[in-house]
Specification:
It is a single chain. This protein has 127 residues and is mainly beta. Helix content is 7%, strand content 43%. The protein contains two helices and eleven strands. Strands 1, 2, 3, 5, 8 and 11 form a six-stranded parallel beta sheet that branches. The chain is globular, with a radius of gyration of 14 Å. The termini are far apart.
């Protein structure tokens, strides 16, 4: 899993330290995997600053650990824009989001590309 430490279990979650780790949830994750932010992450000066891609939530739990994801923006002239792409039921907790701009006909924080129904539980998150 790149530079992430941890084994992805509830007692030893993968620790996300940077934006590349954040996006690796799509491939490293799974409905039984756990992730925790180990640092604040800003989209400034990253490859995603001008070409935003939704963050894939592919995990049982994403613990923001009171850290912040900041300065993300996405635009679509037509269609939907979302911050997170949900691929399984998950819990998001202790996450702070700052300066998030979603500009489209249908902006959303969470979206799925399938007809599946997933449960998203939020706990102690802020913007």
């Amino acid at each position: 899993p790149g530079v992430m430490t941890g084994t992805g279990t509830q007692s030893d979650p993968y620790i996300i330290q940077n934006i590349n780790d954040l996006y690796s949830m799509a491939t490293v994750g799974g409905s039984d995997k756990y992730f925790k932010l180990g640092a604040d992450i800003s989209y400034d000066a990253t490859q995603y600053a001008n070409d935003f891609v939704p963050i894939t939530l592919n995990c049982a739990e994403f613990d923001g650990n009171d850290h912040t994801i900041a300065n993300a923006s996405a635009y679509s002239a037509s269609g939907n824009v979302s911050f997170f792409k949900v691929v399984c039921s998950t819990t998001v907790k202790y996450l702070n989001v700052e300066n998030l701009i979603l500009n489209s006909d249908v902006p959303s924080i969470f979206a799925t590309e399938s007809s599946s129904t997933f449960t998203i539980s939020l706990s102690s998150c802020s913007r």
